[in-house]
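Colleagues,

For the teaching module next term, I've prepared a clean inverse folding example: a structure given as tokens, and then the sequence designed for it. I'd like students to try predicting residues themselves before seeing the answer, so please don't circulate the second half yet.
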């Protein structure tokens, strides 16, 4: 059997791996039942559904080869900047106790996320990136801190002390 659509095959493979990882990670939490769900129930079900979708997509990709659906070269610059942006967001939002870095707060984490992720594109416009970061920071503050009341630090501790 030959892979007719490489894009579908590799997307299905990625979905299967990520879904399987979520399902395995959910085993660390109490699953519960459908009537009384534990904290691991949703990630387990989501992981199983994502893995099943990935398997279905990968199986559908077999057949007569299609030259138009080959996977191109890896776009290293976007991959690098998107990965670094997400790592920076996590580190700035939660801090890094291992090296003594305190949490920098939601606003600075979002600004760093947007600026770094903007570098992944073909062209970088600082003004547009800063406007987007401001809108996202304001929206995140409104939704997560004001509406949902999550205890998320908004600014670095040395700003508010």
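(Answer key — instructors only)
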């Amino acid at each position: 059997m030959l892979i007719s659509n490489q894009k579908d095959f590799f997307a299905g493979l990625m979905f299967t791996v990520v879904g399987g990882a979520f399902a395995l990670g959910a085993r660390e939490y109490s699953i519960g039942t459908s009537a009384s769900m534990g904290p691991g129930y949703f990630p387990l079900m989501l992981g199983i559904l994502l893995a099943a979708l990935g398997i279905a997509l990968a199986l559908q990709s077999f057949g007569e080869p299609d030259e138009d659906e080959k996977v191109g070269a890896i776009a290293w610059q976007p991959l690098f900047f998107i990965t670094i942006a997400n790592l920076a967001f996590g580190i700035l939002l939660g801090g890094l106790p291992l090296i003594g870095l305190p949490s920098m707060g939601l606003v600075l984490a979002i600004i760093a996320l947007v600026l770094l992720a903007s570098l992944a594109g073909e062209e970088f416009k600082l003004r547009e990136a800063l406007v987007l970061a401001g809108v996202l920071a304001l929206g995140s503050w409104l939704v997560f801190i004001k509406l949902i009341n999550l205890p998320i630090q908004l600014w670095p501790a040395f700003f508010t002390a």
